[in-house]
User: Fold these one by one.
Assistant:
Number 1:
Amino acid sequence: MKALVAIKRVVDYNVKVRANSDNSDVELANVKMSMNPFCEIAVEEAVRLKEKGVVSEIVTVSIGTQQSQEQLRTSLALGADRSILVQVDQPLEPLAVAKCLKAVCDDEKPDLILMGKQAIDGDNNQTGQMLASLLGCAQGTFASDVTVEDGKVAVTREIDGGLQTLSLSLPAVVTSDLRLNKPRYASLPNIMKSKSKPLATVNTDELGIDISPRTKQLGVEPPAQRQAGIMVGDVTQLVDKLKNEAKVIS
Amino acid sequence: MSILVVAEHNNQQLSPATLSALSAATQIGDVIDILVVGCDCQIVAEQAAVIPAVNKVIVADNAAYAHFIAENIAPLIAAVADGYSHILATATTTAKNTMPRVAALLDVQAISDISGVVSEDTFKRPIYAGNLIATVQSSDAVKVITVRGTAFDAFANEGGSAPIEVIDQVHDLGISSFVDEQLAQSDRPELTAASIVISGGRGMASGENFDLLYKIADKLGAAVGASRAAVDADFVPNDMQVGQTGKIVAPDLYIAVGISGAIQHLAGMKDSKVIVAINKDEEAPIFSVADYGLSADLFTALPELESKLS
């Protein structure tokens, strides 16, 4: 069974982002970039399925600038077999990313497509669902458990009230939630080996996809700040403040 | 300009979350229809019909929609969408799962989790875990939108009498089937609807120690939440997580206990009206957003707090 994992290069989760000087976008100059944490979980899940003998080949795909090769190399060091970069010069919206991935899937015909539930930059939580829609296939979003058996995949999903398990026909798109697994670190020998694994580059013209934007970002701003509060000395004072000043308990 | 709001419900009860999407819809236009899709959900349609802002209720009732399988309800929503300028739903896990699929069927770029309406085509939404707010303008003919529940006040949900229209379209792709569901059973209020929330973090040290929070919650009529650290440590189940990737809450009173205040957590609760932080680390970032901070050992502070609440 072939697994395809989509990954995204994003601002590292430890970076405190801020607006650029004209408030048109996020300041990205000299900012550390990494693989989106949810994508790392998706890569890890594919590697575990390969270790179990369920998956025979793992192909990772990124839609991004040439620098996204770094994150694809990381995925190769973590256990992917080969990578494809769909090279674009500007950031794409989720719909355009899903269209690029659809074109790659039409070519590669994976049985299982794994990706993060959302990227920590735009926080859209759309691409996996859109890809499943374009492929006309099943989707298992916000996955906390993935089990492949009898030509189907059972996905346990984190939903508002608890957990839901679905059985999906293949091919299917599965998006990872935080608790699907704990990703490993790449070992030094595997990092060395990854440098010789295949990494192909294609562009969107070759795929014949319309990536023109449907939305325009008019600006970014910091959220409203809260007024500084006070420290209370003990529980008695806290209860008094809540009852008599804030009036939120009686 | 007419707007379609997709109702959130469990086939028996219209979820109050639906009112947030309706509230956002009233800021965009004034002809608002509501779609109830489910199985044996006629009673939900009747609840929706008495909301004064609703022009018409559309019901699609079929076994294929029983568990809100996105593969089946997305094509239905896309078919009903014809003629509407906006399709809105509150950003529950059901809507997050379904609406992007609807958008792809309509070939439009969805707009997730809006926190403000600027105009009929321009919206505000948090990005980077709420560290920045982006203003986004859509050029698509139909705007497919999810709405951050805490950003829009719910409003009157009775007194109206909208007509109910039944449609019998069935979309059953047959590629996904429901296996089972483990839903948390609790007598306490639901996290996103509670007026008081008390949450525990890594500082709670174990799942058993959450009893200290439950006792206080029962005295206050509060819901109990948790930080990602507490969920990752298996103290409590995932549906209790408050934060950017968990539940977004904005109660009148939020009490954070043994929570350091990672950005991820703050993104899920910083719109609460009053925030209390109890943490023994005086330097914890949670104190920077707290209205009232108490630097104390939670294992002595919590029993004392419980005893002082009548």
Number 2:
Amino acid sequence: MSKDWPLWEVFVRARGGLEHRHAGSVHAPDAELALRHARDTYTRRMEGVSLWVVRSADIVASDPDQAGELFEPAASKVYRHPTFYDLPDAVKHM
Amino acid sequence: MYTTELDKTAGSAAAPAAVEDPALLAAFEARVANDEFIEPKDWMPEAYRRTLTRQISQHAHSEIVGMLPEGNWLTRAPSLKRKAILLAKIQDEGGHGLYLYCAAETLGTSREQMIEALHAGKAKYSTIFNYPTLNWADIGAIGWLVDGAAIMNQVPLQRTSYGPYARAMVRVCKEESFHQRQGYDLLLEMMKGTPEQRAMVQDAMNRWWWPSLMMFGPPDDNSPNSAQSIRWRIKRETNDELRQKFVDATVPQAELLGITVPDPDLQWNEERGHYDFGAIDWNEFYAVVRGEGPVARERMKARRAAWDEGAWVREAAAAWEARQAARRAAAA
């Protein structure tokens, strides 16, 4: 039994000015073939103008079980939002 | 293409919820009930993981095996235009298989294991591909009816509770409409042809209609896993609901083509606002599920041959990478 090729995550830039977004993954023996497989698999209908591939094993991800604690600081700091500040009506457009 | 829950031995999938941590299970149930998506690293009950792995891999296998009957007709397409269209459709089916294998892999089963299970005859794929494609109109009927049935099933799967499966379905659905339209277009063109060509279209309809209705899977009262799958938001609509939708949508299309539906009991029911249709031969369905379809052996033989004959490409690519890696190591 042959060993399957390693997994690569594919990111596609839909058009100039937009960020690359995760599209899915492909199996490929090396980076060059990963790009070619990504082209054939994820951009058959003008879905992109640029591709990134990265070995799935190289992705470091946060732990979903820790998501509450990890993102809690963002929830508890209301003063980070402009609506926290009550300004006089005389101040326009701020 | 698409799949349905076929494996009757999978009844155990509904049982072992008892061994799960009740607190985790309750939190999971609340999340799916609240229409949240479950992602690969999230906690999920083993039965959910198993059901999805089976369903997504069967779906992937169906895409891959589905390329075979169409591939048979590539060299016999009646024009360069039809050949190019068919080639593009087949490439899409391969792509759909790859999206789905990747989605299934996020559940912890490798693509290699899934493909091995298929080649060993342990994995199921859609029953529809164990019927032969006898004439060119069959290629049109597959696009119109088989992909049409697939669309009915896949549209609600875009909101299935498992994120990677839902996202794969969004991609698939975007592409599937072309498959159905090219099939219907092919048949429309044949219907403008000779009496023999029109007879070929009717013949294809006669052979593909009932197997297409069977694609939605067993009737609801004999589909033991359906309730659990609906509760977990894996499925959004039952087999019978989807089948009825398909009949309602397809009958007027057959009338427009100028062919008849091979069902003497088919008639519009004003009161229900749906078509009534005749009884499906479920014995035939279960026989095909058991691997007794007319071309089941031929399909698996062709699939294994495609895999074996492509081995040299995989080996060459691996050898190339090994040599490049050795060069990088020597240079470092």
